């Protein structure tokens, strides 16, 4: 039944075929290495981009309340905001935080000018804002690193508006609107839009007004 079976037949592979096979294995290994490296790079890039996006959303401040001070010209000479960390935010350094000030007649970027401990007399100008301590658990004034920390940010609207030659009279007038955008170092932004009271007549200079 098996008379035609030849035990002398042998399968042979030529050296050329062997070389091609080894070359294919090497190419596949190199390609796999490239794919692994590319996947790792893309993963790291995605993680960095994701962390930056999270920081822009979370690392920012929250404005609790705002008030202004009436000036001699029956206008608002300065604006004070009480701030704290926004929910879920890590620490925010107010020394590295800028405030974009936008009104009907002015647009400028303000930086922190306060080099004191938060209890002294800070000065704000047409290019800076002043920072005051309300509560600070660990004495790290300038850096909001606890949900219990509270700072006051003071903006001198009289200096800013008075820097415009077209408006030498002082601060913000009744009904005027101002937009404040506070941006932390990581890009987290808090926007506040304030409208000055419609009626300031009868107010004495120095009187506080809720905004």
TrEMBL record:
<protein>
    <recommendedName>
        <fullName>Flagellin</fullName>
    </recommendedName>
</protein>
<dbReference type="GO" id="GO:0097588">
    <property type="term" value="P:archaeal or bacterial-type flagellum-dependent cell motility"/>
</dbReference>
<keyword id="KW-0966">Cell projection</keyword>
<keyword id="KW-1133">Transmembrane helix</keyword>
<comment type="function">
    <text>Flagellin is the subunit protein which polymerizes to form the filaments of archaeal flagella.</text>
</comment>
<keyword id="KW-0282">Flagellum</keyword>
<comment type="similarity">
    <text>Belongs to the archaeal flagellin family.</text>
</comment>
<feature type="transmembrane region" description="Helical">
    <location>
        <begin position="12"/>
        <end position="36"/>
    </location>
</feature>
<dbReference type="InterPro" id="IPR002774">
    <property type="entry name" value="Flagellin_arc-type"/>
</dbReference>
<keyword id="KW-0812">Transmembrane</keyword>
<dbReference type="Pfam" id="PF01917">
    <property type="entry name" value="Flagellin_arch-type"/>
</dbReference>
<dbReference type="GO" id="GO:0097589">
    <property type="term" value="C:archaeal-type flagellum"/>
</dbReference>
<dbReference type="GO" id="GO:0005198">
    <property type="term" value="F:structural molecule activity"/>
</dbReference>
<dbReference type="InterPro" id="IPR013373">
    <property type="entry name" value="Flagellin/pilin_N_arc"/>
</dbReference>
<keyword id="KW-0472">Membrane</keyword>
<keyword id="KW-0969">Cilium</keyword>
<keyword id="KW-0974">Archaeal flagellum</keyword>
